[in-house]
Amino acid sequence: MNPKMKIDNQSFIRKKFSEFYNENVDRIEIPKSIESREFGFTLFKEKIMVRHKSFMRAEDLKEFIKRAVPSNVYYSAAYYSLPEAKMEEKGWLGSDLFFDIDADHIPTECNKEHDVWTCRKCGLKGKGSAPSRCPNCGNESFEEKTWPCEICLEAARVETMKLIDMLTEDLGFSIKNIKCSFSGHRGYHIQVDNEDVLKLDSIARKEIVDYVTGTGIDAVFHGLEEVGSGRARMLVGPNLDDPGWRGRAARGTYEFLLTASARDLKKLGLNRRVIEELIANRDMMLKSWKTSGPWNMIKGLGLEGWRKIINHGIKLQSAKIDTVVTVDIHRLIRLPGTLHGKTGLLKISFPTNEIESFDPLKESVAFREGEAKIYVEEAPKFRLGEEVFGPFKNQTVNLPISAALFLLCKNAGRVVNQSV
Amino acid sequence: MEADYKPILERAEKRIIEALTSSPPVVSYNPHKYREEILSFPVAIVLVAALANEYVKRRYALAEARRAYELLKMENEEKIIEIARKFGWRIRFSNEKIGLIKFDFALNFIDYLRNIRAFHEKSWKLVNRPVLGGEVHLSKQEVARLLQEEIQRYIEDKIDPKVRSMLPEEILKRIDRLKQIYSERMKETPLEDFSSIGIINEAFPPCIRQLYEAAQSGRHISHVGRFTLTSFLLHIGMKPDMIIDLFRKSSDFNERMTRYQIEHIAGERGSGTRYTPPRCDTLQTHGLCPGMDNLCKRIKHPLTYYLRRVRRKRSMRRKKIDESKNENR
User: Fold this and answer.
1) Is there a smaller number of Cβ atoms within 10 Å at the N or the C end of chain A?
2) Per the confidence metrics, is the pTM higher than 0.90?
3) What confidence score (pLDDT) does residue A1 get?
4) B269 touching chain A per CB within 8 A
5) Looking at the complex, does the CB of residue B224 fall below 8 Å from at least one CB of chain A?
6) Which of B114, B117, B121, B126 to mutate to test binding with chain A, by most A CBs within 10 Å of its CB?
7) B170-203 as b/e: b if 16+ CB within 10 A
8) What is the ipTM of this complex?
């Protein structure tokens, strides 16, 4: 693509963003204690992030966004006494507890077939997540173009729901204090609004991260143990309806054994006879959960073997979050009610208890009117609102503004008709 | 000085000496002399403060906190709750059975997190605890152990080095005597100096080796990974220029940016803080631990791994040299 076209695309996108902010400036969600937050922006012209900005009042922020028309708007999860000062002089007062669930961190069934990578050395292109080495030239660095697909978003929703369950049931946060939003691209953001968490340092936040991701967890602390002695020796384990990680460990194990293949079990390092027994007794074992559990049913499967199986079950129950975001107490977060520069979609908040029915690809559509003619190089099939578009390959199409903007932001095409 | 106060001053001094000379540090307790036991504590705090030494302060606070732990274990539930609440803990008597175990207390998980920072045992990790509705369920002994941490911090906070100027001559003399004891102790444990070791690649722990090889072949390394590798290499004395060369292979290499970041981590820019590489458990959290070898299981920090490996290598080499000398004879 020649540079001139890029500029055309960019000015088109910027114009649309500007229109949006002029008409919808009140959709921007103003964070609590705005005067103590740091703001950051990326602009269309330069690629760098403008940081260390602050605003005393909501109106100032809105005016700034209308005037500057940033491609992305961020605010700090942290509160500072001097948000505009250099990092080490800001005076950290506290930080909201924040979680980022992004499809990038979740293995999905679509295998990211919609993502495209390009070798930075020889230009070879491929689909899915980038390989570790280019099959053509052996280079190990790629440019990756990701895509928010329904399967990816569904996977992110499931992880978010697991996280919300742990935050409310185990950690005792009220659902009212958990703010949920769609990021405008490939995932969800969860923010815990609670006085108690503000002062938590990185070490304490890391401990919370380990809790929700099940890092460092061991079945022997969640009910798996040997009781009795001699001939009366037997194993006991967690029950499906136990509280906290205990119950999760049991449910994860149940889920795993329901479908586990011989190969899955072999990967855990179990021996052939135990694997055969596990598969032959599958039904009986699953039934046994109603009573004392399957712990003593398989000959040759002792505490160590069960430990491996349960630890795998735990992985299925863990919430796959971006660990770095939560422990970073200076993190900048996309501001809800602003547009995502990679998609033209809104980061949008919604009531946490509606997560199951929330439709991200509908609610985040920012433009409801108008059309644009664009030339699309290549794009997989995608949905926005009720409409499905594509797949496209080297063709000129008339699209609703939201879909056209989406493709332009993704750098998948260029503007043909400037008269919109 | 009035004779009446002498035993108190004596006992205060004794408390500090006990803290400095016992291992693990602990202060004794004599239930029959409760007047001296109680009154000597604030006096000892003043003495330690006047010593104005970080090591003594920490060791004394630890020894007193350990003493408190031993006493708390024997107390009844009501007393424990009363003391914990003095520190602002949200704790209640629970008497709840989870699985086969009955727990005595339920503690707000944020109060719990504040007090497990120094613990490395897997059993203390929040994820290995019964956590329900924001509360961690604990036994009496566990609550006493957590209180030890709170008490240690409390004592450390009480020790204010500004008191020295207010003290009479006789007490200052005592303080100088205590300094003597402390300096003798310090001689016994020489500090490790990384810069004298040099850079020995074969002594890298698995996590650093993996990152180092990734950098050498220009593979992508996450931000945390770069930070870990850079801070580790700086710590063992690698020059920033060498580290820049290491990252040169990376496809998105930018010399100016890389130099800036490395100098930042080295503490030559920004706040002036020289960053230390993350601990093992932090690397695990971020998925940077490629799995532990035998030595890993015994350490908690990649730098400790390096030190131990180097030390072992050296003693082996020395042995070899000795052997060959013997053969030549």
Assistant:
1) N
2) no
3) 46
4) no
5) yes
6) B126
7) ebeebbeebeeebeeeeeeeeeeeeeebeeeeeb
8) 0.90
